[in-house]
Amino acid sequence: MDIGLGSQGEVEFVPAARLARKLGEDLAIGLECYTNFGPFRGFLPLNEQQHNLYGVVDFKVGRFDVNFGLGYGLTSGSDRFMTKLIIGTDLNEPGERNQPTALQRLRK
Fold first, then answer.
1. Are 23 and 48 in contact (CB under 8 A)?
2. Which of 6, 38, 100, 106 has the smallest number of CB atoms closer than 10 Å to its CB?
3. Quick one: CA torsion of 5, 10, 83, 50, rounded to 10 degrees?
4. What are phi and psi for residue 66, nearest 5 degrees?
5. d(Cα 8, Cα 36) in Å, to the nearest integer?
6. Closest Cα to residue 89, out of 67, 68, 73, 107?
7. Is residue 68 within a helix (H) or strand (E), and if so which, with residue range?
8. CA distance 53 to 75
9. Digits of tens for pLDDT over the chain (108 positions)?
10. pTM (2 d.p.)
């Protein structure tokens, strides 16, 4: 769901899906599909909906996770060719991820 803000804000149905294959510890390739059917109160006609398919690669650069993709719009309501880039990182301190949770510490 996308929730618009302000007096003209609407709630739109925007499902997405991902299928990926891990090729190594820090490398994966896959397909991602992003759609926008329009507002819940009444979906848009097919020619105004957005249906986009991306070929993506995920990899690490140091502590950063990189997701890069090349996309193609499948309907006339979509942009024809697109690229996407998402860069993320874990804000936990190194090694913090492997620390026992409070519940695990209580069980000892």
1. no
2. 6
3. -170
4. -115, 130
5. 17
6. 67
7. strand 64-73
8. 11
9. 988 887 778 899 999 999 999 999 999 999 999 999 999 889 999 999 999 999 999 999 999 999 999 999 999 999 999 999 999 998 886 665 566 666 565 655
10. 0.77
